[in-house]
Amino acid sequence: MMLLLFSSVLILSVLAGWGEVMENFFGSLTGGISGSILTGILGLSLIWTVLAFFIPINIYVEIPFILAGIFFFFKKKLHLEFHYFSKKDTFLIGSISLIILYSSSFYPYILDHFGYYVPTIKWLTEYGLVKGISNLDFTLGQMSVWHIFQAGFSGFSDPFLRINAILLITYTFYIFEKKTWIQLCFIPILLLFSQSPSPDLPVITLSLIILNEIMTGNKNTSLLFAYAVFVFSIKPTMIWLPLLVFLCSVFIFKPNYKNWILGTGILILFFIKNIWTFGYPVFPVAIGDFGFTWKPNPEVLKISSQYALQKTYDMQYSYEEIQKFSFYDAVRNWFTLEGIKSKINLFFILSLVIFSVFAFIKKKKIISLVCISLLIKSILVLAFSAQYRFFLDVFFVIAFILFIHFSKKKSLAFFFASSVLVIGTLSFPNFIRHYIPSFRPGNFMAGLKKEQLYQPSTYHYNKSETFKTGNLKFNVSKDYPFNFDTPIPAISASYIFDDAKAGIFPQYIDEKNIKKGFIWKKLTPDEKKEVQNIIHIIKNTNK
């Protein structure tokens, strides 16, 4: 926790310094110290995304950006910005920040941390963006902009990958600067995402900031749209946000084509990044086929879409069973899943109905546009893969609109009471395991360790096996499904099984230069035997 405190002070200063410089070109969305930090996040994320095409985002990139950011911070005298907070607010911000840092010091427990976030950051820091990497391990094709941003600070300033804690502290600054007190009530829930560089936390916090700016009359369409597209680039399920800004520009603001230039540039960069790593403009959807040789095998894409459909039903039905569902069966079974998921699904639909009625009664244009945007996003999610993690942000948006005038006193009381509950759950996870056994992430919470008061808790495994097929020499985590600390190139065992099922296997484009990327090729009879032998070894190891 103490190391996180030092890391936070350093990174916040760097972001504010860079943000102040970049505001000379972009302008500021919100003003204040939070506005500078947010501009720094946007600017550095875009710069490092471009650099990642050419070089790894490692400590040699991090050091000059850190030094320059600190220089700009003191040159612009940004430390004086903190004096604008009253003594009482400074105390409250400090207390909330300590709660955030303490919560983020626990062991990571979100499974994507081990199977997606950390492996992605390892590739970015060692090689940058690698062409066709989805052929090696399908999940890596996402390469979220948020993980590129995290990679830029993972050398020495944030080696524990707690960048989400930095953003939560920035979010706290924003709440007190803008006096949008209802948003204090959201921080306790977001504490559950602070131990990992989960994209869910930035898209929720940034979308609420953008929404608040719109609701309070900010008409800087250029930056609103740029930030909205940036959020979309972190996680495409946030399609409702750029759609909302677009609708507002058409029906509320004065439309001007110049307002779309920055946002469109970010969108094009997002598409290029995905095409480079995945072969198509939007991961994991195989739409927009430009015929690139490094695009995934159609059979692998088919397996992925089948898996997404099964995840809709929390893996409680086979793909064949789901295919036989009538429309009535599909809806009924989604609402009657075993465990907490069915309650979340029911609450999701109920929330949309309540919000739609609220928007109809209020008859305010902005609320109606928010409602339309959320409904469009919800329809798309329900059609693609109706997993609760894809519509989690909808709950926050609806709560924000319904309780936007919640008082400071009530919000603070709710925050501290809820924080005690969340910290208690993180510290003593047996409680949630006992009372909500269907909440699977609770099974992976490790609880409180005294060492985390000094440095955040992290896992180390370092057990792997090396195999070779064709020109590809690769590593697989031994007796564990994820490759969070397996030397790269690494493949998850599940994707080896999928490739074998499809009769293909990844290969280097140039085995002397990993940066040139990966393609897939059909297995020869001898190679099929090799892969089956590898699968046999993996299965025996995992017994």
Which whole number gives the mean pLDDT? 91
Low-confidence stretches: none
Strand segment tally: 4
Please give the order of strands in the largest beta sheet.
1-2
Helix percent reads: 55-70%
Structural class: mainly alpha
Large-scale geometry: globular
Specify the biggest β-sheet: 2 strands, antiparallel
Distance between the termini: 37 Å
- Rounded to an integer in angstroms, the radius of gyration calculated over CA atoms is 23 Å
- As a percent range, the share of strand residues is under 5%
Count of DSSP-assigned helices? 22
SSE ordering: HHHHHHHHHHHHHHHHHHHHEEHEEH
Walk me through the structure.
- With 543 residues, the protein is mainly alpha-helical.
- It has 22 helices and 4 strands.
- The strands form 2 sheets. A two-stranded antiparallel sheet has the order 1-2. The chain has a two-stranded antiparallel ribbon with strand order 3-4.
- Helix 4 runs antiparallel to helix 7 and helix 9 runs parallel beside helix 18.
- The longest helix is centred in the N-terminal third of the chain and has 25 residues.
- The radius of gyration is 23 Å and the shape is globular.
- The two termini are 37 Å apart.
- The mean pLDDT is 91.
